[in-house]
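For the sake of clarity, the format in which proteins appear in this thesis is described at this point. The fold follows as a row of integers, each naming the local backbone shape at the matching residue. One such record is shown here in full, so that the layout can be seen directly:
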Amino acid sequence: MTRFNANKFSKRMIQLLMMGGVSSGVLAENPSNSMNINILKKEAEMPKTRDEIPEKDRWNVGAFYTNPDAWKRELSEVQGARQTPYFPQLKSYQGKLKDPVVAAQFFDHYFSVNRKLEKLYVYAHLRLDEDLGNDTFKRDFGLISTLIHAFQQEVSWVEPEILALQDEEYHSLLEASSLKQYRFYLEKLGRMRPHTLSPEMEELLALSGNALDGSRKAFGALNNADLSFAPAVDSKGVNHPLSNGSYLTYLRSSDRELRRTAFQNLHKGYEAHTNTLCELMQGHVQTHLFIAKARKFNTCLEASLFPLAVDSSVYTNLIATVRKNLPLMHEYIAFRKKQMGLKEIHTYDLYAPLVSEVKMEMSYPEACEVVVASVAPLGKEYQQVLRKGLTQDRWVDVFENHRKRSGAYSSGCYDSMPYILMNFHGNFGDVQTLAHEAGHSMHSYLSRQTQPYIYADYSIFVAEVASTFNELLLLNLMKEKAKDKKELAYLINDELERIRATIFRQTLFAEFELQMHKWAEEGTPFTPALLKQKYLELNRDYYGPDLAYDPELEIEWARIPHFYSNFYVYQYATGLSAAMALNQKALASTEARDRYIEFLSSGGSDYPIHLLQKAGVDMTSSEPVDAALKRFKDLLDQLRAIL
């Protein structure tokens, strides 16, 4: 999942610094069951060194800096004499932004520096991700990270000064011809004017940031470093080391005993810290409440959605629409239980494959051809750009090498091509990942080709639409090419699981998150028993009477890292719903396809809800989610007919 913030550079850079790139990560459970497909890579084969990877299979970072020395020269030019302040010219504008002419000069310079810093940063993080143990790459990444932090501190006065302007001064900026290209940027800032405090109070809130972030950081330390789990044990009595990463692999195993012990032992590890985890969650939610009250919002939800002009009804309508369709999920659980031949179906059975041992292996060139062929419905121009990027321009760093970053993402900047990091082994999951990241990359490519720098990035709310759209196109093509009913059934179930895990499950999470914030707003203290009871109640509602509810399920809320973001998970459900609706429209009409391409080219030039409405999907209504869940029903009927 690509994470962008199109509002302003400082947030964009903070996210990049935190993630080490424009990440395309997944939430706690990836819906794909492709882990069960045999892979080409032999387990005994060690990752190659970087130099052993052919150049054609490495991303072309030399396209925007020919060598590290060129990068260092530009870094030196940007940071000047290496003395603070690094950017004295920007500081000289402080107190003068109410003058439209001066403000235009400032923003021209401000975003010019932004653009150079982002270019320097992206190159450094790409090189570091090639080899996380390379001291030179570490040093260079540290240098640009330090400079970006210095920049953020030196321009921290900008937004407070604009927000503190008198109404007529602010509106004179909006209407000034010299600031025409910055109008939407200023409008977005202006949305916060009713919720902006005095300069002294704003400074106090800014100073509280690190202290208020303590719960999230403490959870991260506990979850990523300090927690340990008893090993999972397979049906032959063999122990398997258990971690948050290996857990998902074990859940997709055909060995039910391995799945059961992985589920139980992982959650027992969290249960051992239940009181601490409860207090950390309460502290994090109280942080949201503090900010919402300080800025005079009615609710925490409103405070979170307001900056991007997403009405709270989008969130609550999602929950209501999914709840209305919960009988479909209950029907699917019953079908799974029967198909798997189980007397009882448990949570740890939900990720096991219904169709096993389907071999859909591909070489990387074959994967590129399939992905490019799948996007034919988007037109020849889109297809040609993607083909050239994947096969000639070397957008992709394809194969694993020693000390290369794991996972996959799409990155890049306004002055570079899109870059995709992968660790390709040849299974169908890797092909899906390539399609997903290609969707992000084409979204970025088209936005950068069409929009000015300031509006080229897009918000999180729409980020997953393009990637998921391309995955759906890939599934459509693969179904057409399926060589037998078993392979077709596998692909249908893959799409079913995508909807289950992304719409149903993430909406369950969203409802739990909303309830926690309501408790905080009402003054209800969190206790482990309260959180466990509500989480189990939601699972019973969502999964129905056929699922056997293990006691370990009660603590599952404690291991979901996205609860430490601020009303984030609902965007997975809205993103997939929007992608499915747009996909159906684009396949049915050239006009709808053109509107979708225009959406991809719009970047962050409007609020995300408005961008989707222009493309043909109204996320303020229940229609897109209803349509996605109708698709779920149709797929279930298709799978029944085959199996």
